[in-house]
Amino acid sequence: MAKGSSFSEVLSPQGVLAAPLSSVGGKAATLARMIQKGIQVPDFFCVSSAAFVRHLSANEIGWPESVDLTTDIDLLRGVRAQIIEAPVPAAVRQQALEAYNCLCSKRGHGKVAVRSSGGEEDSASTSFAGQFSSLLGVEGSADLLDALKECWASYLSDRSVRYRAHQGIPLSPAPSFGVVVQALVFAEKAGVLFTEHPIDPDLDVSYIEANFGTGESVVGGLTTPDSITISRSTGEVVEQNVATKRRMTLVTLESKGSSEVEVEDFRRTSPVLTESEALEIFRVGCRIEQLMGAPQDVEWAFDPEGLWILQSRPLTAPGRKS
Amino acid sequence: MAVKYSKVAEAEHPVLLATLISAGLQGRYFQEATGWDFGVQHHKYESGGHYISDEDLESLGRLVSEKLQSDSDLWTNYVSRGKSKGSDLIATARSLATGGDQAGNPKELKEGFTALAEATMQMAPFLAASRLVRAEVESLVTSAINQEAGEEQARDIVARVLGAEGESEAVREIRNCYRLALEIAESDEAKELVLDKLPATAVSQMENQFPDLYERLRDHVDEYGWIRGQVQGLDPLSMRDLVERIQGILLRWKPAMIRQAAERDPQLKLDDLLGFSPSESLERLIWGLKELATERPFHIDVHLQAFGIARQFFAKVAEAVGCGPEQLAYSSAEEIMRALSEEGELPISEIDRRIQNSFWVERSGDDLRLNTLEAPPGDREGAQTATITGQTVCRGRAVGTVRLIFGATEVVKLEVGDVLVSEASTPDKMGTESAFPGRTDAPLGLEKAGAIVTDEGGLLSHAAIISRELGVPCVVGTERATSTLVDGQVVEVDATKGTGRVIAWERSPEVAESPSD
Hints:
The complex is a heterodimer. By secondary structure, chain A is an alpha+beta fold. Chain A is built from ten helices and 13 strands. In chain B, the strands form two sheets. A seven-stranded mixed β-barrel of chain B has the order 6-10-9-8-7-11-12. A five-stranded antiparallel beta sheet of chain B has the order 1-3-2-4-5. In chain B, strand 9 (451-454), helix 21 (462-470) and strand 10 form a beta-alpha-beta unit. The longest helix of chain B is centred in the middle third of the chain and has 30 residues, at 280-309.
C-alpha cells in the first residue's frame, strides 16, 4: 500500500478515478465516472480504505482475518465497538474535515449523505452487495466522523457477516471499503429508474418509479409509487400509472436524518413527474447505460436546481433473463 | 325465552351443505350415526358457522359423561364410527363424480342426490359431538396424569397432546406436494422431465415413463384437489397445476430444503412427552385424546371434501334442473329434491337474492327454515376478503402457510415454502428494520419463502428486487395483506398475470371455534 504524504486518504472525484477500485469501492468509482462525463451528480469526496486501515492500526484494533464467520459473532461485535469508540486518527480527521468544509461552502449548507462503497458491492457478477450503511442528513464535524466510523463498522455487521458466511465469501485480509460523503439533495421528488424492464427485459422499455420527497420511500416499499414506462426505441412514454401515495420521506435543512410523513391530501393522487421530467430521467439513464456498458439501476432526485443522479449500479443478473 | 347458542363448527359453505348439516343434527340422525339416544333440538346456521343451543350442548355433555363412565370403549367406537361415516360420504361422492353419464336421467340423478344427502346427514352429528367427547376425555386424562405424575405436569402434557390438532387438510396437502417434489428431485430423469417440459407435456410423458410417480400425482389430485375447488371461482387442482407447482419448488430449492418442508410434521412420541412410563390405562386414554384431537378438523373437512369431489355430479344436477352450479349450491336440499321430482321449479330469483345476501338456517321441531336477510354492507365485504390483489413483480404460483413478518429479525420464523406477508417497510426505522433492508441484502432465511406478499411498494422496491433475485413469486401493493391475512392460514399466491392474487384456501385459524352467544 502506498505510504507517505503524497498519497491522500481522502479523495476528490478526480482522485477516485486514479485510485484502485479496491480502495474506493464501486459506488465511488461510478459516481466519479459520471461526474467526468458531465452527468449532474452531487459533489462528493471519498474516504478510501487506506483511511480505514490507518484507523485500525493507529488504534491498535486487530483485523479479524482468520475469524470463523459462523460462530465468532461476539468477537466481531467487539471489533465493531472498538471501531466506533476509537478516535479517528488526526491525519484522516484533518483531511476529511477539510474536504467536508469545502463541500459545505460550495453547496451553502452542511448536510451530507454518508454511504458505504464496498469493494465487493454493486458489481454485476456477484449478488453479494448489501448496502452496509447509508446515513442521510448528517451535519457537523462530530456527526460526520461518527457517521464515518459507523459505516466502517457496518462492514462487520451481523447481517453482512452472516450473509458472507452463508455465501462462502471470506473476509478480505484487509478491508477494501470506501465511504462516500455526498452533498445532500433536498429532494422534492425522487425515485428509481431501471433502464430495462425489471420483469421482462424483452419489452424494450425503461421503467421509472417516483414519489414525492426522497427516494427512500420508493426503494423501501414504504408506499406504492407512480410508475412510468418509456419505450427505448422511440423514447416516448407508453404507460403511466398514478398511484395513491400515502406516505413519503423527507430531509430538510432543519431536521436531523430523514423523516417519514404523510403526503398531503391535495397531491396524493397527483402525478409526481411531468412527461418532460420523466423523459429527462430516461435520457440521462441511457447515457449512464452507455457509459457503464450495461443496463443500470439508477437512483435520481429533483430539487429546485433540477435533476440529480444519486447513484447508479448494474442490474444484477438473476433479475434478468434466466 | 331467548335460546342461547354455541358454535359447533366453522365452515365456509353454501346453502345446500348448510341445510344438509342442519338436517343431520336432528335426533334421528344423531342416533343412527353415533348410536346414542339423543338429538339436538335447536340448531342454526349463521355467518359461516353452525350453532346448537347451549341447553342441547349441556345435555349432550351429560350423556357423553355418563356413557364414558359405563363404557370404556366409548371414544374408540366413536372415533371409528366417525371415520367410517366419513369414508362412506367420500366414497358416495367419488362414485357420483366418476359414475356413468347421468345427464338427462332425472331418476338416477335423484337417487344419487338422495344418497349423497343421506351420507352427509349421517356425518353431521360428529361435528357437534367431537367437542364434547374431547372435553370429557381431556378431563379424564388430566386426572389420570395427576395421579401418576402430579398436577404440574398434567396441564403441560395435555396441552401438548392437543397441540397435535393443528394440522389441517390444506397443510397436509402442502406437505404431500413437497414429498412428491422430493421424490422427483431424487431421480435425475424424472427431474429433467419435469423441469424441461411445459407442465402439460410433462404430465403426458410421465404417464408413460414413470407410471408409479404418475399414479401418486393422480392420488394427490384426487385426495386434495377439492380444497382448491371449494374456493369460489377456482377449478379444482389439475395434474397440470400440480406439476407447475412442483416445477416451482424444484427450481427454487435444493433437495435438503424441500425435505425440511416435507418432514415438518411434529411427530408426537409418548415416552418423550411424558418422561415416565404410564400405566396401560393412561396410555390408552392419552391415545384416545390424541386421536380425538386430530378428528375434529377431519369432521369439518370431510363434508367440504365430499362436495368438492362431487362437483361434476352437481354440474349435471344443475343442468337437469336448469340453473348454474352456483345457483344450485345456494338452493336448499328440499328445493333441489322437488325440482328433480319435477314437482316444482327452483325459485331462481330467491336463490339469486341468497347469493347476493347472507343467509341462515334454523331448525324448529322437525321443520327446517331457511331465511335470508339483508347483510350490512360491512359484513358482506368481510365475506369477500378471501381474495386480495396487487401488482405481480415476480411471476409464479405457490401455495403455503402465511407468516406475518414485521422486520428483519422475524425472518427466522419462516419455514421452507411459507408465504411471507409484510408491510414491506417499517415506519421510522426504514432501511434498518424492514424485512427487506437492502436492495440485494436479503436477511438470512428469506430464501425459504415460497412467495412474498406486501401491503405497499412497486416493481423497484427492495421486496420486488429481492424476490426476483431469489425467483420467488411476489405480489406487492395489495394495501391490506397484513391486515386481512392471519398467521398460519393457508393461501395460494397466483402471480402468473400482471395483477397478482392471494386466495385463501382455508379460513384463518384464529377465527375458527370462537364461541358465540
